[in-house]
């Protein structure tokens, strides 16, 4: 069973002193003066970023965010965003948060208008289905049939992938990503388009579900941290934190803690 660390949304994480080699001025000076790193996250993506009903955040991405705050020597506070509004929320002025984290795939399209960090987690598109029907789905062709109901959350790459690759299946858009696995298990739809980062959690926590193509993802990519252009000093801090976690073994430990595939 996965072990999670709960972090109160309304409280911040006390962080260690920043590395003296980190750049000063610009965005980092603003954050240091404020004393808090504001982190945008959707809170709907177990086990990377999830906000419980009582307002507690937990997950792999949440702990990475805390490491970044520690690199800056400030506290960490989490701000709710959503997949449909993610880009707008990153780019809006005045800023809602300093950076965004939690299941955000590094793409060329995002890098055209925003900054993205180095990758800290491998990902790729896969599916969740009912365990009793796992033998039915061995390829995209098996899924792309009119009788197959495919459920996705709106505004993200899962919906984009489904629309681009499943032209015959019936696509159902459901507003709350975190509800889709249980809806699949209950029979409201047949297949969920998801990531190899998300699928193992639901297979482990709900015996009604399976991920038959987990080891054969349809795409290959990495997840990173997203922020506004012009914040290159903050980007350097973020990359420093990610590199340190890779070097000291703490990133691997987090992967193991949350049952994620380590690719570094």
Q: How is the largest sheet built, in terms of strand order?
A: 12-11-13-10-14
Percent range of helical residues:
25-40%
C-alpha termini separation = 24 Å
Strand content: 15-25%
Tell me what you see in this structure.
It is a single chain. By secondary structure, the protein is an alpha/beta fold. It contains 10 helices and 16 strands. The chain has helices spanning 26-34, 60-72, 86-91, 108-113, 140-143, 157-165, 180-186, 199-205, 232-248, 250-257, and strands at 7-8, 36-41, 44-45, 49-51, 56-58, 75-80, 99-100, 114-116, 121-123, 125-130, 149-152, 170-173, 191-195, 209-210, 221-223, 226-228. β3 (44-45) and β4 (49-51) form a beta hairpin. α2 (60-72) packs across α9. The longest helix is centred in the last third of the chain and has 17 residues, at 232-248. The chain starts with 6 loop residues before the first strand and ends in a 7-residue tail after the last helix.
């Amino acid at each position: 069973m996965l072990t999670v660390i709960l972090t109160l949304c309304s409280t911040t994480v006390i962080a260690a002193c920043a590395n003296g080699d980190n750049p000063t001025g610009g965005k980092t000076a603003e954050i240091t003066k404020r004393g808090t790193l504001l982190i945008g996250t959707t809170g709907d993506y177990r086990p990377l970023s999830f906000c419980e009903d009582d307002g507690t955040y937990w997950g792999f991405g949440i702990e990475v965010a805390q490491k970044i705050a520690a690199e800056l020597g400030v506290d960490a506070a989490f701000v709710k965003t959503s997949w449909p509004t993610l880009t707008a929320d990153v780019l809006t002025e005045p800023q809602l948060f300093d950076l965004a984290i939690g299941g955000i795939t590094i793409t060329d399209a995002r890098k055209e208008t925003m900054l993205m960090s180095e990758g800290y987690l491998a990902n790729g598109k896969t599916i969740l289905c009912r365990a009793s029907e796992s033998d039915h789905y061995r390829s995209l062709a098996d899924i792309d049939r009119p009788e197959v109901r495919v459920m996705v959350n709106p505004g993200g790459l899962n919906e984009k992938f489904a629309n681009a690759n499943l032209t015959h299946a019936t696509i159902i858009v459901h507003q709350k990503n975190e509800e889709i696995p249980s809806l699949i298990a209950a029979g409201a739809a047949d297949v969920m388009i998801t990531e190899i980062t998300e699928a193992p959690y639901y297979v482990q926590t709900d015996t009604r579900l399976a991920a038959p193509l987990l080891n054969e993802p349809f795409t290959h990519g990495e997840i990173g941290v997203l922020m506004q252009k012009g914040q290159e000093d903050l980007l350097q801090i973020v990359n420093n934190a990610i590199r340190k976690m890779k070097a000291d073994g703490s990133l691997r430990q987090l992967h193991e803690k949350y049952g994620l595939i380590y690719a570094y």
